[in-house]
Amino acid sequence: MTDLKTRAGSRRYHHGELREALLAAAEAELTEKGEDGFSLRSTAKRAGVSHAAPAHHFRDVTALLRGLAQRGFDRLTDCMKNEQARVAPGDAEAMLTAAGVGYVRFAVENRALFQLMFGGRVQGPVPAELARAGDASFSVLVNAVARLRGADALKGEAGWRDVTAAWAMVHGYAHLAIGNKMGWLTDQPFEAQRPVVEEMVRRAVRL
To answer: Boundaries of each HTH tetR-type domain copy (predicted)?
Structure first.
């Protein structure tokens, strides 16, 4: 009986389409209800499939949230690279500040997803795909520092201090911003925050 319901509930989707539909529904659920109010059943209902259908791709709610976090990291990487694409390729300082801007932009435009990616049920031992997605987003900052300081800088402590400082600055600002802890500044459109983020990144690496 369950198999019949599953097939009936998911008949509108091909196999790959079902996974994408579930992730889209999961993001909408997360944005609307937060992680505390998130459930597999309500996600399936939003996607228009039976409650058993998600099992084709996600064994439980944690697996679904981890799949959503993986997609979030992919989009974070894209957001950082898109910001970098707006500046002259040879301008290493601008490439680093653009990476920071993209990091914060993604966070403030995807608050619930950003919080999920760095906390909650996605923590602990994670699938290799999620780990790779997280590493890819971090590597955008790492590569930007290497471009600015020279690749050899990352062979020593000084280069990694710059990476750590830049990441701590943008990550800390992002959490303050999405938590509405920045007062008037984070009430402004993101473009009003851009110069502040750029200045923070420059200060972090002492430019």
So the answer is: 16-76
pLDDT of residue 12: 61
Nearest 10 degrees: Cα torsion 181, 72, 159, 98: -70
Tell me: pLDDT of 89 over 60.
yes
Asked if 30 and 116 touch (Cβ cutoff 8 Å), the reply is yes
Cβ 77 vs Cβ 132: under 8 Å: no
User: How many whole angstroms separate alpha carbon 63 and alpha carbon 46?
Assistant: 18
What span, in angstroms and rounded, lies between the C-alpha atoms of 196 and 185?
9
Nearest partner of 26 among 78, 74, 73, 61, judged by Cα: 61
Q: Is 133 exposed, middle or buried (0-12, 13-18, 19+ CB in 10 A)?
A: buried
Does the structure show a pLDDT above 60 at 193? yes
pLDDT band with cut points at 50, 70 and 90 for residue 5: very low
Q: Helices in 85-156 by DSSP H: which ranges? A: 92-109, 111-117, 128-149
How many angstroms separate the CA atoms of 178 and 181, rounded?
Answer: 8
162, pLDDT greater than 80: yes
Backbone angles phi, psi at 110, to 5 degrees: -140, 60
Amino acid occupying residue 15: H
Nearby residues of 193 by Cβ (< 8 Å), 6 or more positions away: 104, 108, 177, 185, 186
Domains present along the chain, CATH in parentheses = 2-58 (1.10.10), 69-204 (1.10.357.10)
